[in-house]
């Protein structure tokens, strides 16, 4: 049992990746975890300015955007789940803004080693390599920062709203809760 932060990355009403996030949330809560969900597409995010002044003013980022509002939750959490659709063979821009700002934890010497991390993603094409540059930045960056990847759910062939329901994506996302 612990605290898990889920970052959604789609603003679609009947979003496939958000459906996986919700399936994970329900299963993780049923196991007694506290799950906090943010949707990056509803947030005012500017990414990283590269000033290297992270935490020098007490806040994660000197440029005050909504990342500062979730930074403490991310630090307190035992696990992070990133749910997002593939956009142009990578993650959506808003998700990348969150990942860029997570750099502040490294600059600010915050301990994020051992955080359990999972990715829930889907794409329209029926080719698993479409996920390579969506998942790769998390895995390479996470390796540097000592994150503990406990499993991903990557579902190809999912295009229209709600199409995830024709797959086992939500079931697999729920099963992933056992790893947290
Ligand atoms: C801007 C944009 C870019 C996309 N790029 C890709 C892509 O490169 N490869 C792919 O297979 N699907 C791509 N898609 C399709 C989405 O990944 C797919 O529809 C997904 O199921 C959307 O998930 P969501 O319902 O959670 O938003 C793209 C969709 C949009 C809107």
Please write the string of helix (H) and strand (E) elements: EHEHEHEHEEH
What's the name of the CATH homologous superfamily? Flavodoxin domain
Low-confidence region ranges = none
- By helix and strand content, what is the structural category? alpha/beta
Helix content class = 25-40%
Number of domains: 1
- How confident is the prediction overall: mean pLDDT? 97
- CATH-defined topology: Rossmann fold
Outline type: globular
CATH class label: Alpha Beta
Question: What does this protein look like?
Answer:
By secondary structure, the chain is α/β, with parallel strands linked by helices. It has one domain (3-179): Rossmann fold, CATH 3.40.50. Helix content is 34%, strand content 17%. It is built from five helices and six strands, in the order βαβαβαβαββα. It has helices at 16-30, 67-76, 93-107, 132-145, 169-175, and strands at 3-8, 34-39, 79-85, 116-122, 148-149, 153-155. Strands 1, 2, 3, 4, 5 and 6 form a six-stranded parallel sheet that branches. Helix 1 (16-30) runs parallel beside helix 5 (169-175). The chain binds flavin mononucleotide. The site of flavin mononucleotide has 19 residues, from helix 1.
